[in-house]
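A quick aside before the break. I want you to see a complete sequence-to-structure record at least once, exactly as it would be stored in a machine-readable document. Don't worry about memorizing anything.
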Amino acid sequence: MRRLEYLVATSIDGFIARTDGDFTPLLVAGDSLQALVEELPETLPAQARQALGVDAPNRRYDTVLMGAATYRVPGGLPSPYPQLRQYVACRSGLDTPDDVSVISGGLLERVRALKAEDGLSIWLCGGSTLAAALLPEIDALILKVSPVVLGRGLPLFAAEVPTTRFAPTAVRTFANGVTFREYVRVG
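That is the input. The structure line, written in tokens, reads:
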């Protein structure tokens, strides 16, 4: 069975973006960006892959799942991750290209079906409302923690969620102050 992994950038106070959706203070650069290029090239959007000259195969993920707000980020692409199977969870209609599928209902059932397929893991790249809805199916958290306090914004989980235990499995600190923290679901 494939894993659903919530890999997301966050501030040290637990926000994945400002209240207006701006996540630029959390963008990785320097040695933490180089780690993503080398280890998780599939998590770079098409425009970043092109700018950085990345043409590496997928290493960890073959599918990406995102909420509508994450899909519609300003300056975003109609097909941000063409190297992955792309799914957008959206309750209302959403116009997408053929290589982006919309999940408008039966979210948990659809994610369970995706997890039952053969393949690499599934990357939940945002947003916080979707992460809250999918918490029962999230197998791992991978947090790219930027050394910045936002004070307020969009939290990791934008709804009341049940207490759910995760165990730390890895922590890496980079020269630019960013840490990658990995956790797996307990039980």
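Two observations worth writing down. The beta strands are 4-11, 15-17, 61-67, 85-89, 100-103, 121-126, 140-146, 154-155, 166-173, 179-185. The first strand starts at residue 4 and ends at 11. We'll return to this after the break.
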